[in-house]
């Protein structure tokens, strides 16, 4: 990709190997056309979308076995879209979304690397309303609570795009904002089921990371 150094590697998710193209390191930044400025993404945060984070692996593993039959699914803040790739392989009705200008091209490339059809993708800033996106039975995200204020924004996305009996599954790395999301979704009638998870191989209980499942 012009302006960026990338690498390819293989991840085992469920019963399948996935070939992934990611940014080589966190120092990658190029904005010759002003995309970062228009998107409001700082140079410090620009490269975060292009890496495989532990929370992304945890969510993708969960999606290997989650009940998706007949459900319309939205992944928010998809980044490289590991969970979307897993769900596409499972022939689920999945739409990936992100705010980063490069997320769509990386997702499409990785789908091709794995012999998968092109995924449905939407540019979805959480603070903006998209009346054409519709409603979903399952909304998922990984490490989408890494800044203060994200819980409120995420709850607003759920409010706009969740069906009445929607389920929300969030892989939370334990940055301290998960409880704020739980409180915000409680006002929409959701109850949370929390599962502590090992996000790193050398972690020992009690684990900091959580898989949060909200239902109403």
From TrEMBL:
Keywords: Methyltransferase, Transferase. InterPro entries: Methyltransf_16, SAM-dependent_MTases_sf. Signal peptide: none annotated. One of its GO terms (molecular function) is methyltransferase activity. The keyword Chaperone does not apply. GO terms for biological process: methylation. This is Lysine methyltransferase. It comes from Luteimonas cucumeris.
């Amino acid at each position: 990709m012009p302006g960026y150094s990338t690498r390819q590697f293989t991840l085992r998710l469920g019963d399948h190997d996935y070939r992934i193209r990611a940014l080589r390191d966190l120092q990658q930044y190029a904005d010759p056309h002003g995309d970062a400025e228009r998107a409001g993404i700082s140079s410090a945060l620009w490269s975060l979308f292009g890496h495989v984070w532990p929370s992304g692996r945890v969510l993708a593993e969960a999606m290997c076995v989650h009940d998706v039959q007949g459900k319309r699914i939205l992944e928010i803040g998809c980044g490289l879209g590991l969970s979307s790739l897993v769900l596409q392989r499972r022939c689920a009705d999945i739409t990936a979304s992100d705010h980063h200008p490069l997320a769509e091209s990386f997702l499409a490339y990785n789908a091709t690397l794995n012999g998968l059809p092109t995924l449905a993708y939407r540019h979805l800033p959480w603070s903006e309303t998209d009346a054409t996106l519709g409603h979903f039975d399952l909304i998922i995200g990984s490490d989408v609570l890494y800044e203060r204020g994200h819980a409120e924004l995420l709850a607003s996305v759920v409010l706009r795009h969740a069906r009445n009996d929607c389920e929300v599954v969030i892989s939370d790395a334990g940055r301290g904002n998960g409880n704020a999301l739980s409180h915000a979704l409680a006002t929409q009638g959701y109850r949370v089921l929390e599962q502590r998870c090992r996000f790193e191989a050398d972690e020992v209980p009690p684990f900091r990371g959580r898989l949060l499942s909200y239902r109403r």
